[in-house]
């Protein structure tokens, strides 16, 4: 019960959409600058100044975007599940919108991880796709994202859509480790011994820098685009409210009420 | 002395504010009729009272105890008649009502409930042959088959003819006499003697009030 | 407890009277498996090699067929609303409907499996493993599928959406089911597989009705 | 000049590396543009709606 109260108190401040928008518009330029900065630094190290790997040759440069993309795929799904949980438990409207905003970004990073993974696999194993444990788990994660997005748009009332998809995000989140475990297990069952392990030799220092830089670039990009999309979702909410008021000529909408009550409650 | 009440309830439907600061009180033997134009939230209020919906603010209490603390306990107190009649086309009228009655502890006599609404002759007829009015009577007979203190009726008189409406009025009267409560939202005038009226229009937030 | 029994009895009554439901599921199951000899060729050794996987995937797909209507009919005719307003917890009602779904789909599939094992010339020592894994696996499929069925209530295109939501969650059950049968065929000990599948089932038993009830409550809120 | 070409060939695997980097930029750029259009359209529509309700002011946000 205490956690519930504590959570309510902490999030209450940013539950109010307009105050969140003020916060978002201060963070957004910084996120944009960080994205571009890290991206340039990461590219410089990834493409220009780091040596090719003695075993994989130049193709190791694909790893510098494949691995951060895979990290982002997992990170976005976790962030989505966390936002969904906050949205469901504390009825926090902005958290619900954050989950809706994160899904397409996560899906894009998952697609990139798969695409670059298969491009990396071609020179190393000669095939576009190999049923490696990690790649398969990322493939299933991609379908979990598609399921989330399909469900959230399958209803006429978007509030219904985001509630139903929040539950799916939590159910999916509980299943991710089970899927990971069973795919690894299945992989060792059918694993031909000769395939080189996915991440090759231990990553040595000069390769770590571009990896970390690209990871930061992707995270900053995520924050930047997510804040944008949340702003769009909030606008959509206000538009629906105004349209409904035109139709019903009713009293002010939920968002204005929320603002009034949280304004007063501050 | 069972008391069912709600204090300053605020309810949203999607983006729309349905009503705010709505309070009501009802005691055993009383009846409450909800009035208001379409879309003013009559059905919403009934669903809030049944516990299907959670109010954004404010509380609904049964004997002083918040209903969301023990939803199953609250369900045992009430019967809800919504717009849809939940009559399975494949099952006979008798089977339909027996199913619903068995879900509750003290299932009463089925035949008496059917006769009360004059559909005794339909007991073995499968649901798909029934007209809308007959389906509504089966639905109403269902709540007679197993007693519960509170009746929440959402426009019970739709699809009912004059004779069925008088049956309904009689049943409501006997239910109230035996210490029950009835909350109904209705457009047609049903003769509930000394029923209190709750007009949802005066709880709608006007433009400047917000 | 009698609520559980009366709901299961009513659902079975409905399934019997509405007829053909489980017959259609079994017909789809047999047809789906029968397509493979036409596709892959009738040689027994090839068919035996893929028999377990084909039968399991077909069982998975056919158990998903009737999932969409698990709550949809009750949702449309108002019974789901009334079921949510009964004195017994909604989770028990959801569990009862899942049991009824398993009895009308999972069980008939099990009965049809021996015929298909013969069709696909499945090696005989894999036979009991197949039956046993399906017996443990199909309840988990019904349980996980019920969450999907509850989530799509009131959505525009229910059926296709349901498969997109539920199939990724079926993969662990499929992997352990088929590997148990393959293990049995090649004489390996399959105790570990069966324990894991039993673990999945035991985990799904409490969690899925709870999540399904949550989804239904949220669906009834509109 | 040929030093530049050999750089681009990247030991024969140039095509893989450049397509994957290219795809990353294309996907991220498309996602960014789509998000920006999503916000712009909703903002203009919102302003349009708010105009005919004068007293309901909407704050002009400058988003990048």
Explain this structure.
The complex is a heterotetramer of chains A (266), B (210), C (222) and D (64). Chain A has helices at 2-15, 17-49, 60-89, 93-125, 133-152, 158-190, 205-248, 254-265. Chain A has 266 residues and is an all-alpha fold. The longest helix of chain A is centred in the last third of the chain and has 44 residues, at 205-248. The mean pLDDT of chain B is 84. Chain B folds into 2 domains: 1-63 and 153-210, Rossmann fold, CATH 3.40.50.300; 87-148, no CATH class. Chain B has helices spanning 42-50, 71-77, 93-102, 110-116, 132-145, 162-177; strands at 3-13, 16-27, 31-35, 57-62, 65-66, 78-81, 150-154, 181-185, 196-199. In chain B, 43% of the residues are buried. Chain C has 222 residues and is an all-alpha fold. Chain C has one domain (2-220). Chain C has 9 helices and no strands. The longest helix of chain C is centred in the middle third of the chain and has 30 residues, at 90-119. The model of chain C has no long low-confidence stretch (mean pLDDT 92). Chain D is mainly α and 64 residues long. Chain D has a domain at 17-54. Chain D has helices spanning 2-9, 14-51. The two termini of chain D are 39 Å apart. Chains in contact: A-B, A-C, A-D, B-C. The A-D interface holds A 18, 21, 25, 28-29, 32, 47, 52, 57-59, 61-62, 65-66, 69, 104-105, 108, 111-112, 115-116, 119-120, 122-123, 221, 224-225, 228-229, 231-232, 235-236, 238-239, 242-243 and D 10-11, 13-14, 16-17, 19-21, 23-24, 27-28, 31-32, 35-36, 38-39, 42-43, 45-46, 49-50, 53, 56, 58-59, 61-64.
Overall structural class of chain B, as computed from helix and strand content, comes to: alpha/beta
What's the Cα radius of gyration of chain B?
Answer: 17 Å
How many structural domains of chain B?
2
- Round the mean pLDDT of chain D to the nearest integer and report it: 77
Distance between the termini of chain D: 39 Å
- Mass-distribution shape of chain D: rod-shaped
Structural class of chain D: mainly alpha
Shape of chain B: globular
Q: How are the SSEs placed, and which strands pair?
A:
The complex is a heterotetramer of chains A (266), B (210), C (222) and D (64).
Chain A: H1 2-15, H2 17-49, H3 60-89, H4 93-125, H5 133-152, H6 158-190, H7 205-248, H8 254-265
Chain C: H1 2-18, H2 21-40, H3 44-65, H4 69-77, H5 79-84, H6 90-119, H7 127-151, H8 158-185, H9 191-219
Helix pairs in contact in C: 1-6, 2-3, 2-6, 3-6, 3-7, 3-8, 6-7, 6-9, 7-8, 7-9, 8-9
Chain D: H1 2-9, H2 14-51
Summed up:
The complex is a heterotetramer of chains A (266), B (210), C (222) and D (64). By secondary structure, chain A is mostly helical.
């Amino acid at each position: 019960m205490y956690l519930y109260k504590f959570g309510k108190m902490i999030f209450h401040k940013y539950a109010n959409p307009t105050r969140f928008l003020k916060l978002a518009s201060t963070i957004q330029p910084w996120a944009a600058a960080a994205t571009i900065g890290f991206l340039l630094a990461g590219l410089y190290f990834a493409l220009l100044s780091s040596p090719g790997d003695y075993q994989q040759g130049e193709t190791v440069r694909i790893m510098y975007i494949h691995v951060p993309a895979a990290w982002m795929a997992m990170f976005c799904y976790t962030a989505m599940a966390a936002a969904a949980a906050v949205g469901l438990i504390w009825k926090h409207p902005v958290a619900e919108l954050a989950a809706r905003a994160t899904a397409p970004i996560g899906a894009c990073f998952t697609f990139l991880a798969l695409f670059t993974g298969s491009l990396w696999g071609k020179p190393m194993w000669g095939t576009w796709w190999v049923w490696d444990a990690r790649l398969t788990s990322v493939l299933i994660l991609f379908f979990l994202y598609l399921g989330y997005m399909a469900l959230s748009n399958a209803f006429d009332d978007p509030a219904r859509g985001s509630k139903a998809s929040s539950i799916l995000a939590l159910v999916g989140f509980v299943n991710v480790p089970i899927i990971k475990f069973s795919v690894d297990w299945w992989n060792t069952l059918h694993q031909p011994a000769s395939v080189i392990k996915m991440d090759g030799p231990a990553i040595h220092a000069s390769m770590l820098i571009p990896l970390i830089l690209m990871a930061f670039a992707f995270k900053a990009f995520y924050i930047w685009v997510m804040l944008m999309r949340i702003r769009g979702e909030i606008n959509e909410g206000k538009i629906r409210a105004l349209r409904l008021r035109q139709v019903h000529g009713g009293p002010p909408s939920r968002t204005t009420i929320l603002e009034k009550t949280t304004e007063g409650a501050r | 002395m069972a008391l069912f009440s709600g204090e300053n309830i605020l309810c949203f439907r999607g983006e729309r504010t349905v009503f705010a600061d709505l309070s009501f009180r009802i005691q055993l033997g009383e009846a409450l009729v909800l009035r208001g134009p379409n879309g003013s939230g009559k059905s919403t209020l009934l669903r809030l009272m049944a516990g299907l919906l959670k109010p954004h603010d404010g509380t609904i209490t049964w004997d002083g105890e918040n209903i969301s603390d023990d939803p199953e306990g609250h369900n045992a107190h009430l019967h809800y008649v919504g717009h849809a009649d939940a009559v399975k086309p494949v099952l006979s009228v008798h089977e339909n009502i027996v199913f619903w009655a068995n879900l509750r502890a003290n299932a009463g006599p089925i035949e008496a409930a059917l006769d009360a609404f004059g559909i005794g002759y339909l007991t073995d007829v499968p649901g798909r042959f029934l007209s809308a009015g007959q389906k509504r009577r089966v639905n109403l007979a269902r709540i007679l088959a197993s007693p519960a203190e509170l009746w929440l009726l959402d426009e019970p008189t739709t699809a009912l003819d004059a004779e069925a409406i008088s049956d309904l009025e009689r049943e409501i009267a006997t239910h109230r006499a035996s210490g029950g409560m009835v909350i109904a939202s209705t457009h047609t005038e049903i003769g509930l003697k000394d029923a209190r009226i709750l007009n949802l229009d005066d709880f709608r937030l006007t433009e400047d009030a917000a | 407890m009698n609520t559980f029994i009366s709901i299961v009895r009513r659902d079975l009554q409905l399934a019997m009277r509405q007829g053909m439901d489980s017959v259609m599921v079994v017909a789809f199951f047999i047809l789906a498996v029968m397509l493979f000899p036409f596709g892959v060729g009738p040689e027994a050794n090839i068919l035996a090699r893929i028999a377990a996987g084909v039968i399991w995937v077909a069982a998975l797909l056919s158990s998903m067929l009737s999932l969409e209507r698990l709550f949809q009919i009750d949702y449309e005719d108002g019974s789901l609303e009334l079921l949510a307003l009964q004195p017994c917890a909604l989770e028990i009602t959801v569990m009862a409907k899942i049991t009824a779904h398993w009895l009308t789909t999972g069980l008939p599939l099990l009965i049809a499996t021996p015929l298909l094992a013969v069709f696909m010339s499945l090696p005989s020592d894999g036979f009991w493993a197949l039956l046993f894994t399906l017996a443990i696996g199909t309840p988990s499929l019904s349980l996980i599928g019920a969450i999907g069925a509850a989530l799509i209530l009131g959505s525009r295109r229910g059926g296709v959406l349901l498969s997109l939501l539920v199939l990724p969650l079926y993969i662990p059950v499929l992997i352990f089911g088929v590997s148990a049968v393959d293990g049995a065929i090649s004489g390996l000990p399959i105790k570990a597989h069966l324990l894991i599948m039993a673990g999945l089932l035991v985990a799904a038993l409490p969690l899925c009705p709870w999540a399904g009830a949550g989804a239904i409550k949220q669906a009834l809120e509109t | 000049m040929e030093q530049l070409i050999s750089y681009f060939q990247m030991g024969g695997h140039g095509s893989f590396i450049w397509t994957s980097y290219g795809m990353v930029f294309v996907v991220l750029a498309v996602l960014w543009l789509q998000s920006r259009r999503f916000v712009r359209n909703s903002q203009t529509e919102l302003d349009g709606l708010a105009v005919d309700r004068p007293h309901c002011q909407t704050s002009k946000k400058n988003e990048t």
